[in-house]
Design goal:
This protein is of the alpha+beta class. It has helices at residues 56-59, 84-92, and strands at 2-3, 12-13, 16-17, 20-21, 41-44, 47-50. The chain contains two helices and six strands.
């Protein structure tokens, strides 16, 4: 891993090569509004950037970002539907 020379100067980056940034567009994209409050966002001299992903808007495209630390996923504690026929057979034993 080389050190970033474009947007997150001084940080190690997997996209840096000897020829420069190999990410699509040549540099990381700034965080979007949905990323505000995430522990993975860092401020650098030229803006706020995600430490986990170079283009945060793609992670939020289909709903919540799976790497977001500020979003709690709502797990529904739905009661399992009980089949009345099977329940009556179980009581008969």
């Amino acid at each position: 891993m080389l050190v970033c020379e474009t947007t997150r100067k001084g940080k190690k980056c997997t996209f840096m090569t000897a020829q420069g940034c190999s990410f699509n567009g040549g540099s990381c994209a700034e965080i979007i509004e949905a990323c505000n409050g995430c522990a993975r966002s860092e401020q650098h001299e030229n803006g706020w950037f995600c430490t986990a992903f170079p283009e945060p808007s793609v992670k939020w495209k289909n709903g919540n970002c799976n790497l977001a630390t500020h979003v709690q996923s709502a797990v529904a504690d739905a009661k399992a539907k009980l089949n009345p026929i099977k329940a009556s057979k179980r009581r008969g034993k």
